[in-house]
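Reagents: none. Just compute today. ABC transporter ATP-binding protein.
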Amino acid sequence: MFQIKWMWKNLKGHRVRYVIGLIMCSMSAGLALATPLISQQIVDLILSPPPGQERRVELLVPLVLLMVTAVLLKTGLGYTQVMINETTVMDMLHSIRCCIFKNLQQQDMSFFDRNRAGDLMTRMTGDLDMVRYAASITIRVIIDAITVFTAILIYFLCTDVLFTLALCAILPLIFGVCYVYSKKARPMYADIRERLAVLNTRAQENIAGNRVVKAFAREGYEIHRFDEKNADYRDANIRVNKFWMKYYPAIELTAQSMAIVVLLLGGIFVMNGRITLGQMMAFSGLSFTFANPIRNLGTILNDIQRFLASANKVIELYYVRPLIVNRVDCHKAEGRLKGAITFDDVTLQFGRQSVLKHINLDIKPGETVAIMGNTGSGKTILMNLIPRLYDVSEGEVRIDGLNIRDWEIHSLRRNIGVATQDVFLFSDTIDGNIAYGDPDMSEEEARHYASISAVDFASKMSDGYDTLVGERGVGLSGGQKQRIALARALAIKPSILILDDTTSAVDMETEKFIQHNLQNLDFPCTKLIVAQRVSTTKHADRIIVMKDGQISEIGTHAELVHQGGYYAEVCALQEALGGDENGQA
Ligand SMILES: Nc1ncnc2c1ncn2[C@@H]1O[C@H](COP(=O)(O)OP(=O)(O)OP(=O)(O)O)[C@@H](O)[C@H]1O
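Predicted 3D structure written out:
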């Protein structure tokens, strides 16, 4: 089975320990036979010896001591094997988790577009826990069941074949029932797992979007939506339980019927003198132990189905490979790139939708290009092509004359500073967030780029630049977050700086200050600035206007105003609104 092979692969380095644990588990299970077998000896040799045989009272103490030793040994083995298996499985999970997280880091944007955060979290937590449960508990239950079952079967066969055959007559029926059950239950468990992922996604979205929920007073609606998914999950669980209850009576009845067979046949055989009273007692005691694995079969099957459903999801994440990868003969960018960018007849499609169509653009090193255009015109997606977050469908993007697909991805991205539209800050200090791209950055350097980006507000906070921000930190305004994101992008001294609406939430005066600083950076840099404000775009060397995934206008501020197209309209509008004195041509 592939899932088992995969677990075995991940046990590398711990396999011997794991197998020793399982052998101990098997030995401990086998010792369960000791008590009934020694009891048989006590009855047959001391309490009620068969006619003609001498009573061996002197064996009582050794036999009792043997029984105590067996019990102690079983307990000791059980304890040690649990310790060994739990630690081994934890080691295995640690390496699986590392591998999956590493794999997630390498995925491209389209992977995160396709997969919901809640589903990914379910795989990393609940599903992985199911794998742990199977590798540590289910496997022990199975080994325990197989050992006990096989040992007792051998003992029964050695003692009386007819008796054993009578006891086992119903077993093929049970195994048949179990086979049918597990086949039919498998999709049901996969369904439960899917519903859990949907439930988690709903909860995760709700927590992330709690501000919107509160602002629109939609708590009741959200509770209702969550309840729907919660009920779906509950119903799926109930469905599988009901399904199991159809099969349960057959299995339980067989387990119970064994005791009846033992009493009935055993009684007759003792009376016939075919077996001794001690053997009958051992049979009776063991038949209960023998029935236990059969009784546990349902739990084992259910656990196996849950494991398979979860393991498949974890394995998917374990083996998924990104589409955007380095070529074997890729070129590593040593040092700084010059920052020349060429879009050569670039088209990008998502499914059937062309979001960029035949883009041709040459940007010289050190040039500042502003990008304007309607919502959804393709500005952000065009910027996303530069760090190769998406691959073009047709044409090519070249950086410093080399096709972007030929650059080693990390070395390329290290040369590109990006401040995105939706600012994301980590749960870290302001300093920590600014130095994110280069952990070796000195405090002075981080402060320098903070001052360029107008992160001066930090010094007024209680802990200054050591103030915690992000999810668990203090609340920041949109403009403050944008300024930290800008400092973070600048701090790596990129050859190419991409600012996607980065100063949209910043007040006019601060924006002016930032614009001035951007024009006087202390390192050479090609700048691409997506903006809606003319005050931001007018100083650019060139402005391009995007429309429906195409470049509709291109030129300097003066040229575009003169052309009288979209850009000129925006200028006129912003001038008329009067909020932007820089909007004038
Ligand atoms: N991952 C994606 N999958 C499918 N379509 C996408 C994806 N990202 C963007 N699009 C589509 O591409 C088009 C351009 O999106 P883009 O984000 O570039 O717009 P934009 O010009 O930056 O808009 P805005 O000014 O509102 O940010 C839109 O129609 C959008 O729906």
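The CA atoms of residues 309 and 522 lie 55 Å apart.
Action item: order primers for follow-up constructs.
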